[in-house]
Amino acid sequence: MPASLCGTWEILNSTNLEGYMIALGIGSSMRKIALKLKQHKVIEQVNDKYVIKTLSTFRNYAFSFRVDEEFDEHTKGLDNRNCKSLVTWKGNRMVCIQNGEKKNRGWAHWIEDDKLHLELYCEGQTCKQVFKRVA
Ligand code: 1AG
Hints:
By secondary structure, this protein is mainly beta. It has one domain: Beta Barrel (Lipocalin), CATH 2.40.128. The protein has helices at residues 17-24, 28-36; strands at residues 7-15, 40-46, 49-55, 61-66, 71-74, 82-90, 93-100, 105-112, 115-122, 125-133. The radius of gyration is 14 Å and the shape is globular. The structure holds ligand 1AG.
């Protein structure tokens, strides 16, 4: 079993969030706001259901899913698109493919050095984020 992703996490650093947001078609004023936010992740698991919340003072984004079960994702408050999303484990990485209008879109979460890592990618742009555990 991979190390548990569950817990509350606070962002330490982020690279190329700007490029990722441009790939998603986010306008410049919204990108400016988003770049300044201190993000928290809350990852919870109840039985076989996961909930992942991205929290900030400006806006929150939350969704839930079961691993290996495709679900309808609406990226409300982000780029507001609909995706057919599928989360699977690839070794110690929890990976999600977000099939929809944007090509080659998804993310991966994993634990490394007790930190939560996240890669968000879309149409050739990858944003990398690292979070430290706060609870
Ligand atoms: C995600 O994580 C992305 C979560 O799906 C948000 C991360 C970065 C922001 C991405 C796009 C920005 C779009 C619009 C900007 C407007 C508001 C920013 C609000 C940011 C906080 C919600 C999934 C992954 C699975 O963690 O955990």
